[in-house]
Amino acid sequence: MIGVSMFRSLPLMSLLLATPAFAHDFRAGDLTVGHPYAFETTRDGQAPQGYFSVTNTGATDDRLIAIRPAQGEASLRTAERFRNMVSTTSAGPITIPAGETVKLSPTGLHVSFTAPKARLWSAADRMDAVLVFENAGEVPVVFNVEARKAGMGNGHSPN
C-alpha cells in the first residue's frame, strides 16, 4: 500500500520540483526580475545583448545602476532607430518607478555584454550575472540564451 500511495504522489512531487526550473524570475525586496534572456550570437565579434523585465511593487522608485556578468563586462544601453539605422548609446542608471514594470528589449533598453569568454553564444547556454539596484541591492540572475526567430536579424528588428 505504501508503494501505491507513493506512486500516486509522484506526479504532484515532480510538478513541485520542476516549477522552479520553469519559473525564471528573481526577487529582491519589492522588485521582481522576470525572464532574463539573450539571443544566440550569429557571428564572431557580435556583442551579445540581454533582456528582462523589472517589476517594482513597492511604494518608492528604485534604480538599476550596474550589471556584473560572471564573464567579461556589461553596460546598460538603449537602441534608437533613425532613418533606417539603429544606434546604441549608454543608458546610465535605469529608473524602475514604484508600481510599474520596465522592460528591456531588442528595440529599446538592453544590456550589452562585451568581451565575454565565449565569443559565440549558442541556444541553451547560460550567463550568470548580478544586477545591482540602488535600494534593493544585488540580485543574482541567470540569462538563458535562446535561439533567434526567423527574421530577427541582429536583434534590433521590431519583429
Q: Any chance you could write out the topology, listing elements then pairs?
A:
Blueprint: H1 2-22, E1 25-28, E2 31-39, E3 49-56, E4 62-69, E5 73-82, E6 85-90, E7 94-96, E8 101-104, E9 109-114, E10 126-133, E11 137-146
Parallel strand pairs: 2-11
Antiparallel strand pairs: 1-2, 2-3, 3-8, 3-9, 4-7, 4-10, 5-6, 5-9, 10-11
Organism: Haematobacter genomosp. 1
Keywords: Signal
Signal peptide: 1-23
Structure overview:
The protein is mainly β and 159 residues long. It has one domain (23-146): Sandwich (Immunoglobulin-like), CATH 2.60.40.1890. 13% of the residues lie in helices and 48% in strands. The protein is built from 1 helix and 11 strands. The protein has one helix spanning 2-22; strands at residues 25-28, 31-39, 49-56, 62-69, 73-82, 85-90, 94-96, 101-104, 109-114, 126-133, 137-146. Strands 1, 2, 3, 4, 5, 6, 7, 8, 9, 10 and 11 form an 11-stranded mixed β-sheet that branches.
Shape: globular
The radius of gyration is 18 Å
Main pleated sheet: 11 strands, mixed
Percentage of residues in helical conformation = 10-25%
CATH class: Mainly Beta
CATH topology: Immunoglobulin-like
CATH-scheme architecture:
Sandwich
Distance between the amino and carboxyl termini: 56 Å
Key terms:
single chain; 159 residues; mainly beta; Immunoglobulin-like; 1 helix; 13% helix; 48% strand; globular; disordered C terminus
